[in-house]
Amino acid sequence: MQIVATSGTDSPAPVLPRLERQRLHDTVVAHLRTFIVEGTLEPGRKLNERELCETLGISRTPLREALKVLAAEGLIDISPNRGATVSRLSGAEIQDTFELMSGLEAFSGELACERITTVELAEIKALHYAMLACRANDDLPGYYRINHQIHDRINLAARNSALRQTYLSVNRRLQALRFRSNYQKPKWDSAIRDHEEMLQALEARDGKRLAAILRQHLLDKRDAVLLIQAGDAVGTPQA
Known about the structure:
- By secondary structure, the protein is mainly alpha-helical.
- The protein has helices at 18-37, 49-56, 60-72, 91-115, 118-136, 140-157, 161-180, 185-203, 207-234; strands at 3-6, 12-16, 76-79, 83-86.
- A two-stranded antiparallel ribbon has the order 1-2. The protein has a two-stranded antiparallel ribbon with strand order 3-4.
- It starts with a strand and ends in a 5-residue tail after the last helix.
- This is Transcriptional regulator.
């Protein structure tokens, strides 16, 4: 699709290639975000622009534009002297941010039970079964992508724009840690059981129950992440 601007004459103005440039920008941001979430670019790692340009097949200009977006999201830190590094949250930051997220998720669930449509509920159920298939195949990246969609759909079903913007802002900082919380298979299976209960509460339109499940679900992820981080600090392997 091309955008052509007219100037009140019979001759159209030059074609503006905004869509392709925007598509490239969005694609680069999405790839880098996935690298960070899935641990390809681990916390604290200094980013090598040349290597990333080669990996993505792009020049430095779109890369640097994408890095600015990720910096605004809190996923990377940019220093005039050190360049860009993947952000690393401290234990206190993890504690505080997951506590905040647990409240946002709980509120989303409570409102969603009041406002979700039959079609939206059916879509979440379909995603749930697709997520189970990923777990059966030990496909953690696929599982996480669908899991993320389920939580996002619940938040959208709340139909509260102020909640939506806050939710997106906070959740971006936690995506890599939420992914990492499923590294241990018992934790992964526990999360699956939580999702079974979430779906039951959502179908019953039981807002208080869904809120309680979501709140504890996020606090359990917080605890799993802090345990993994403590193990990393002392060099203890996680089973």
